[in-house]
Amino acid sequence: MKPDSFEIAADLRRSLARLNRRLRLEARETGLTVAKHSILGHLYRDGPKTPGALAVAEGVQPQTITRVLAELEHSELVLRRQDETDRRQFKMEITPEGLELVQREARNRAIWLASAMDSSLTVIEQEVLRLATKIMDKVADVPYSDRPGS
Questions:
Q1: Pick from 15, 51, 76, 87: most CB atoms within 10 A?
Q2: Domain 20-143 class?
């Protein structure tokens, strides 16, 4: 690994984390914790999942996710359905209300980000960001097994 690559990677990680925190603060719906938003996001992107699969996706123990799922279910943002292929299991799926909330939050974040970009960046800086998004997608698409040390 080149020294410059490590420094760029560390700076990029810090900047992405800072921007992500800011986006969460700017557009978060009242009462929607980071954990709830993350679970709704998984269900929105990936479709119905078992609580165990959600726990793996979140990197937490299954019992940790149980309370959050119960709160989301109580708020009618997710629905528990019996698995069609394995009747002993059930899957959680996002409800129309949950879908609307996720889409509204994504729109709020995009509106805030566009406004911040318009008020603080030049046209050239915005074009650099457009290119940077393509570059970040390229990095994100590197298969896990291609990581150094894997």
A1: 51
A2: mainly alpha
